């Protein structure tokens, strides 16, 4: 091909590209898009958006964009044109219109590591069916009759292992508690057993990859996580085969009291679907709850007044049980933990375990004069609403009293009761049809853990540490604490 022929040969491709760009611009011109900056080609502003920051803030990136463009702005994130929302009304609108105007749309790398049948990435009827299975197993009756007892047993197992004046990672202890609980709850695995510890080791590697850059290259955390995922799934499948064989032989009760037995008995899911379901529930039930408990320990350490009121509430419960001769918490005891629920709500509001969600517009949508084009990604940023000073007074302040019944969402003493105006803004577990199926279990775990923690220990930070968002929440030093045992507190 001569030098003269080359431009002629490339001319149709160049013209096609120019035509494509013109059509895209014309299409976008039809829309009144929010203001914003699309950043660099393909990567857009992703690196700036994911840069770590204090978990009790929204980060410099969000602050600058909200100041410059407002609470609704456009960007290019995760390789796609995106509408970012720090607006309480739009966030609620997005979640309430799940499946009609918007649908879940996580980056492909998330589905690659959690599995295509993971509840986090499923949409439509399949997500609904998986969620129904989870809700049936996490029913109110089961929480009362079975899970409360298991939560307390695993709490005491962890707390009773703490040695006087020792220094240890509160974050690791919280993770130990939630992992052991979920392993028992899902597959009847006992804590401390070799198979449980081996599974925990693989799971730690798996989790590091879930929250890392999706680079499937030798030596990367993502590649190691994929390898651990394969090992974990083989382990779960082996447990399934053993359980099925025992059922056939009549050795095992068909009403097996764990999730694996329940799914085998009550669902028609394929092996692959069961494996991804169990893996995703292990992920969801372990990681978010452990972070929330670590955050509670962190916030409470710097708020003695809160600890004092918590102790008064839990001492009253403990004294009543001692007088009646009862052992172990029951559901009535849990319902008496009213101020504890305020502490839980404030921990979730200020710490924001889940900071934003991934959605996609199914149709062209107009909101407050702005257009959200069909196919665009939408990121409702939950943390930005929870830390909005127009909705919550002094939002960076840990103030459980703001949630007391009868207060306003803005009030300095503000726990959202059902029907309160604050519940419109407070969405730590998401909302709409995809509201977290394990939300009640998570609050139960936190309440029981706090009950035994404040009755039995005083603690202080052994080293300066702070929660950061990467955007997942983590303590860089593991939240090292030193504990002192309380004696004769009841």
CATH fold assignment of the domain at 30-116 and 355-387: Uridine Diphospho-n-acetylenolpyruvylglucosamine Reductase, domain 2
How far is it from the N-terminal to the C-terminal residue, by CA? 92 Å
Number of strand elements: 13
How confident is the prediction overall: mean pLDDT? 86
Q: What is the chain-wise order of helices and strands? A: HHEHEEHEHHHEHHHHHHHHEEEEHHEEEE
- In order across it, which strands form the biggest sheet? 2-3-9-6-4
Taking all Cα atoms into account, the compactness measure Rg is: 25 Å
Structural class based on helices, strands and sheet pairing: alpha+beta
Task: Describe the protein in words.
The protein has a domain at 30-116 and 355-387: Uridine Diphospho-n-acetylenolpyruvylglucosamine Reductase, domain 2, CATH 3.30.43.20. Strand 11 (468-469) and strand 12 (473-474) form a beta hairpin. The protein contains 17 helices and 13 strands. The strands form 4 sheets. A 5-stranded mixed beta sheet has the order 2-3-9-6-4. The chain is an alpha+beta fold.
TL;DR of this structure?
It is built from 17 helices and 13 strands. With 490 residues, it is an alpha+beta fold. It has a domain at 30-116 and 355-387: 2-Layer Sandwich (Uridine Diphospho-n-acetylenolpyruvylglucosamine Reductase, domain 2), CATH 3.30.43.
